[in-house]
Structure to design on (101 residues):
């Protein structure tokens, strides 16, 4: 099984980070046909998502996004493309929200 790990610090606070995570996951869910579950917590949210060949979690706090994706054997060859898209799309919305883009 192949893994993708993405961590990004931010200064958005939990409420804004939560909204961005929901926005990003909704887009990814639509594109990739993922089923998602969002558990909100006082200090951190956990979003789990999966579909055949893809399973992952995103931990969202007031200071960090921590995304872990496990790719099955059939999806493993697409790892570089998926990793690049995660870096681009999630990085872009975080930078935009922080006023950096």
């Amino acid at each position: 099984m192949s893994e993708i790990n993405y961590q990004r610090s931010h200064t958005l606070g939990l409420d804004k980070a939560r909204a961005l995570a929901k926005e990003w996951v909704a887009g990814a869910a639509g594109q990739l046909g993922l089923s998602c579950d969002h558990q909100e917590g006082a200090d951190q949210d956990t979003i789990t998502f999966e579909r055949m060949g893809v399973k992952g979690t995103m931990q969202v706090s007031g200071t960090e996004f921590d995304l872990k994706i496990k790719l099955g054997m059939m999806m493993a060859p697409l790892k570089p493309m998926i990793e690049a898209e995660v870096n681009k799309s999630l990085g872009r919305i975080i930078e935009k929200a922080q006023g950096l883009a």
